[in-house]
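Schema walkthrough. Field components (list of strings):
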Amino acid sequence: GQQVMQIPQYQHVQEGEDFTTYCNSSTTLSNIQWYKQRPGGHPVFLIQLVKSGEVKKQKRLTFQFGEAKKNSSLHITATQTTDVGTYFCAGRPLSGTYKYIFGTGTRLKVLA
Amino acid sequence: DTEVTQTPKHLVMGMTNKKSLKCEQHMGHRAMYWYKQKAKKPPELMFVYSYEKLSINESVPSRFSPECPNSSLLNLHLHALQPEDSALYLCASSRIGRGTANTGELFFGEGSRLTVL
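Field assembly_structure (string):
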């Protein structure tokens, strides 16, 4: 079946260091969303990417959607302790109107 | 805070019990979802309702029975569950738009944490 993998699974960084998580789909996606889930919390929407090669920025966060629409990345510059949590990508297959397949997630810990 | 409200927040039930999880949103979203999330795992889609009709059932066992009484409410009826069904059950909603990105962001509730004994 369709799979969406993320690497790394875990990442520990010192506060102020950069962080990147990569998302790879086994099939071409219509669009991709990114979510953050704090420990004990629920997923919260960060951004949606639709176009091939699209790049979007939100303050210290930079999101990219690959040219083939099968991969994506999230880069955080100068991490802060508030960035702690699990970051999930969620891809919508070309054939799936309402179906978002969540990636395996990357758990980020930021050491002060 | 979230605009999707789930009750109860915690539920402990035996394998012979019947219980229900409830979800409510007043954002006018016409797509509603049930996801199941085990510890340290991603959310897994269970059901999707669009315009109050079941659109997707991800081969979920019949001991889980969804219901969408109206455009604001979504229920998940539970019967004869197994201990491995213990998980966080997340409800979400989204708008239904037009075009290739025809669903917007998913708004998640805080979840119902279910323990089956």
